[in-house]
């Protein structure tokens, strides 16, 4: 498992597992891997993805199998709601909602709004 930058450049692997199985004819087996936020967070940036590469070999035949899975990390959405009528030349109250999906507190966040008619947007500390 490694991170992949938005440019496509892969980082160094930060997790590896090795499993060996004996599989009877016609049967299948499942290997589950859980990756916590605390484990992948130091390796990813704002627009990165995680790449899982799985490779296997069949001991009896020497056949090699491989598969990759690219997992895009979704950023949470902001919800904007008008709290009053939009009238030219008058202030317009807007509610912005953001839910922190992470298992730790976010600090130092700011909100910056831009748009037509906003002469000098100012960051709002949250």
Automatic annotation (TrEMBL):
Name of this protein: protein-glutamine gamma-glutamyltransferase
Record keyword Signal present: no
Name of the top EC class for this enzyme: transferase
Membrane-spanning segments: none
Domain (Transglutaminase C-terminal): residue spans on this chain: 3-67
Keywords assigned by UniProt, alphabetized: Acyltransferase, Transferase
EC numbers, comma separated: 2.3.2.13
SUPFAM superfamilies tied to this protein: Transglutaminase, two C-terminal domains
The encoding gene: Tgm1
GO MF assignments: protein-glutamine gamma-glutamyltransferase activity
């Amino acid at each position: 498992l490694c991170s992949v930058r938005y440019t496509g450049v892969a980082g160094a692997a930060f997790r590896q597992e090795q499993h060996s199985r004996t599989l009877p004819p016609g049967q299948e087996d499942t290997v589950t891997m859980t990756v916590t936020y605390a484990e992948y967070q130091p390796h990813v940036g704002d627009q990165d993805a995680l790449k899982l590469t799985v490779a296997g070999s069949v001991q009896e035949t020497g056949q090699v199998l491989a598969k990759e899975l690219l997992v895009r990390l979704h950023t949470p959405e902001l919800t904007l709601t008008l709290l009053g009528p939009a009238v030219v030349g008058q202030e317009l109250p807007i509610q912005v909602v953001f839910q922190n999906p992470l298992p730790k507190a976010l600090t130092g966040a700011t909100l910056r709004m831009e748009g037509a008619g906003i002469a000098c947007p100012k960051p709002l500390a949250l």
